[in-house]
Model the fold of this input.
Amino acid sequence: MRVLLVEDEPEMVSALRDALRRHQILLDHTANLYEAEAMASSSSFDIIILDRQLPDGDGLGLVPKLRAKKNPVPVLVLTARGDIADRVEGLDYGSDDYLTKPFAIEELLARLRALARRGGDLQSDIVKAGRLSFDFGKRDARVDGVSLDLTRREILVLEALLRNFGRMVPRNSLMESVFSMDDEVQPNALDLQVSRLRRKLSAATSGLAVNVVRGVGYLLQEDL
Done:
């Protein structure tokens, strides 16, 4: 899952970055609406977490701009403005969820999972393919009940491929699912992650194969 955080409080940004990273969620960040609109237009995000009190205006102003551009990305407003009138205004503007500060990280994660399900093709937190089952909520991959020892990046690769099981995932799209804008990425970084994941799936006899469509992308399918 890739999230754009629009927040100007450094302490909040640092806390959320650490918490989401522990749950294999990529986080890109900006502190103002101008950059947020540009980033949302140029990159693909699964969810936007949006503060209201930003240096260049009320964060809610971003939502109708996204919808006018036919951008359906779910928006979760995360703000200290928690009066009923504020919450109603936020939802009426087109945001998908509204959470007030202070909050429990467990609740935020649950809301992110719910928005991801609503915005994607998955109807459950757990999917099965070949002999593998993957829990999107816990980021846990198992083959015949035995947990696979995957790194954070490998989990992100597997998650993106499972969300598109049987369909080719373009290379650029997979890059966006695995690396944030702040990451220093070597030219072969994605190939290394895919190669390591492929070896681990094979060693576990998962019944799955990651096939390379040379120069185009990657395809996860059953290994017949």
